[in-house]
Amino acid sequence: MTYCVAIKLDEGLVFASDSRTNAGVDQVSTYSKMHSFETEGDRLFIVLTAGNLATTQAVVNRLKREMEEGVEGSFADVVHMSDAAEYLGRVNREEQDKHSEALSKSGIVAEATLILGGQIRGGEPEIYRVYPQGNYITTSQHTPFLQIGESKYGKPILDRILAPSTPLGDAARCALVSIDSTMRSNLTVGPPIEVFVYETDSFAFEHYLCLEADDDYLRSLTHTWDENIRRAFVDLPRFDWETTRTRKKRGTQVHAAPGRSGRKSAR
């Protein structure tokens, strides 16, 4: 399984992904799911991948080759980020079609889902989720993030914390907590964890981290989050019946619960 998330903010973009692939209990491997493509000072793209590993590797290899060769309509010369999303969708669909018939005979699905983010000079940073069918969606003012893979466990923290005005550092920590929450609930998602923070108009792959399971920062973040969650839980408001119970004095009467007859005296 996989978990990847991308966040669009007023200050730029944040990307995070795990690195575990799974083809059964006995076939767990580590592969990067974050891929960068850039032309210095002009354009930068990040692609996050989920789905069939053979398909995603074929897609990434083709993207790199066509960008290096300057193929028309590729990442090398698209004018808008939406054009790049359309191109990525077409490549993804074509690579799936190449292998789907042979793989389907073995019961293997060739589909891949991708997140594309980045910026082209003259435009704004954007992110898109590209589906196996080739179509895509982008973010909204109320939902400034996109996820692929095992997304349900990591979504609540994103919903509660993120807004377009969230600072890049806070959003990066939020993404890491989101992945940590997913790893707690699903063993098929695991480190190394890759994080990339992109500042608007920088066109540079600068703020990048690859965090192993024993990384000091990752362990500190996980420990601090766990402790604060426990503290917040303990501080939740009490139920009325809990408060009443603590105030009971010796000799006062406690009424039976609804549906039960009689009452008894407290000892």
TrEMBL record:
Cite a single GO BP annotation.
Answer: proteolysis involved in protein catabolic process
Q: Give the GO cellular component terms, alphabetically.
A: proteasome core complex
Q: Does the keyword rRNA processing apply?
A: no
| Signal sequence segment | none
Q: Which UniProt keywords apply?
A: Proteasome
Looking at the record, which segments are called Disordered? 247-267
* One Pfam family cited in the UniProt record for this chain: Proteasome
Record-linked InterPro entries: Ntn_hydrolases_N, Proteasome_sua/b, UCP009120_prtse
Q: Supply the name of the protein.
A: 20S proteasome subunits A and B
